[in-house]
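[audit] Reproducing an earlier prediction to check determinism. Same input, same settings, fresh worker. If the tokens differ from the archived copy the diff job will pick it up downstream; this log only records the rerun itself.
[audit] input (543 residues):
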Amino acid sequence: CCGPCESRPCWNFGQLTKVGDVVLVLALVCGLQWAKDTYPSSWRSEKLEGTVSAKSGSKWTVSFTDGFTVDLNRADITFKQRANVRSVTAAGSSSDTPRNTEKPDEPFEETVDSSDDERVPEEPESEDEIEISRDDDGPAPETVDGWTENDHVNMGQRAGRPRHQPSYNLPDYESKELYDYALHCLPMEEITAMAALMETNGLRRYENGDRHYVNWKVTSTAVLKFFGCWMYMLAFPMEGPRRAYFQAPDLIGPTHNLGTFGVGIRWFEDMMACFEIPIYSGRQHTNDPFRGVRRWWNGIRDAIRDAMEPGWVLVLDESMFRWLGRHMPGLMVVRRKPTPVGGEVHTLCCGITGAFIYLELWEGKAAMLTKKYCDVHALKSVALTLRMVEHWQGSGRAIIADSWFGSVPCVLALFAMGLYACMNVKTVHRGYPKEPLLAKLGYTKSTGLCDKERRGELFGYTQVFSTRAGECQVTAGALNQKKPLLLVDTASSLLPAEDRVKYWTIIDANGQESKRKTTQEMTLMHELYHNYYGVVDQGNRDR
């Protein structure tokens, strides 16, 4: 057991944590550099033994034998054993050994976490009324395939790491205009190269007798205006020819006259006629089905990635974009998506801002098997996850992802890369204690639901794995929320979080509305997942 947490009681050998108790804390609390120098291979998970010497408010002071002290939250402390506690025999026993009735020279003051007031059972008034035995603490934790039952994980692997806040890699960005932000997220080198190609194409047409291209000149600004016309048409779709966007409005209908921005239909059609995207040269690109767009695509992807420094939470999911051409390699159909037919893009976004920061196009089953990390990891979802986040390796960020990505091998591979994870587990559950967790939740396979009477119950298992980055404690957490929510986690803990409140409206047969509300207990782990897992989907809907 982990000791009492900050807002719920939890017991160790029948006692609450008090001043004088022996506890364990991560070596990271003594300083990151010190931990790395002292424990080169296990600095992430190494724990030090100390003694609780004082409590002030929500802070507990832990002292070590070398005189070092540190003030910590209760969540950062793991109970080990009670100090100054003697094994005693209950009155009336026939033991031949006399009972030691001496008291400590200076009995310590019993300081109990105030957050546990009025929520704990009454304790015995003296030691003589209870026999304290290490062998009689209740049933031993259940162990399944190396996983140990542990419903009170009070410290995750990411404890002590900073929570990065997002920022733009643009000087004085707070005073910039929206146009400046747009330029910051575009590959301007590629746009300059595109302008040169389009100017060359127009001059060639002029040499062939097309008088529309006399004095033809294409600049980067002209290409940006050309893109702006397309963006406008996408944002305000309408029936009829494109010319309608460049004409003065009639008395009836919406106002769309791009001519007021200094562009006309003749210029737009001339730009269309000589439009060309720079491509990669070289024999290795000859048979690439995406050769016509790959260089442009990579330029956009890298520009978006470098435009900002994301926050401490990264969310991984997929998106769909519509394809309007005649043929597309890697065509995908996902009916549940807002855009069901087109290209699938694996998407990484900043969980704090919702901004997309990295993209990878799905090119087809055979092509994806040749990508980086596929020769190292058997699961293609693990290889894809590592490709998407490798730019931020070693930063200690937390990766949130749904069940397509979630698995024990995935979180371990991320930990070895210096990243943490909180992921849903459904289909890829090899090595994960899925069956015992579902049994504890009262899950019925025929209905896909958990016991209604046990709604809100949570259970956990932990297992320590060895990786090239040191030992990693992985938590498998399950929550009964009508349907089971199974998570695999190295980023958080099973400490209680704020209750999750859900509201909805019901309209009866008479048209009367009534408001309904449910409240569900949550852990920090499940709260982390609920808060961020839908960020990419929200961005897809907003588009």
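[audit] rerun output stored. Observation attached for the diff report: The first strand starts at residue 22 and ends at 26.
[audit] end
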